[in-house]
Structure of Putative hydrolase:
Amino acid sequence: MTALVVFDMAGTTVLDDGLVERAFLRALPDATPAMVQHVRDTMGQSKIVVFREMLRDETAAQRANTAFEESYAALVAEGHCAPVPGAYEVITGLRANGVKVAFSTGFSRVTQHLILSALGWTDLADFTTTPAEAGRGRPYPDMVLAAVLGLGLADVRDVAVVGDTPSDVRSGLRSGARVVAGVLTGAGSRTALADAGATHVLDSIRDLPAVLEGL
């Protein structure tokens, strides 16, 4: 039985189309190719942690993170925010069948709310969480476990975790979730998601209900 599905947002339920990288380049226009590659390699992780790793200075990291959040917000305001096809229908279908839904993200609470508001999804999930609120971001299991605790679940094995990056997969595995599915609508390739240990690699979120029904 699946009692809860924890969904990543950008690249999993929300189309990314390069928005994270574009916001990063707006925030750090002088970024080196190595820094851009690091952003690609750490998709799904907490953004402030990524900036700390790159800049090695807390003040500079905080400044860059603020600029990134502002840049991403501007892109969303410009209309560059849309759901992954079928995501809304899958989520509402799960909830109609008694499965709880949580959204996790590597963004701040402000940016997460901005995205959900832009999509009209502010009431779509039973629980939402961010790295700052849960304790640590991916690849740590904290956000998944925060949803388990926040929703009062008895067993983490009744949880499915869905994301588009190896960090999402590692987070789900470390939490003890029974299903850890990687989707190919975002940053991760089939090989990368499988190598990270995904229990399932799906073309998109649309394929998730069939996996859960087969358990």
Observations:
- The chain has a mean pLDDT of 91.
- The chain has two domains: 4-16+81-213, 19-77.
- Residues 12 and 63 are 28 Å apart (CA to CA).
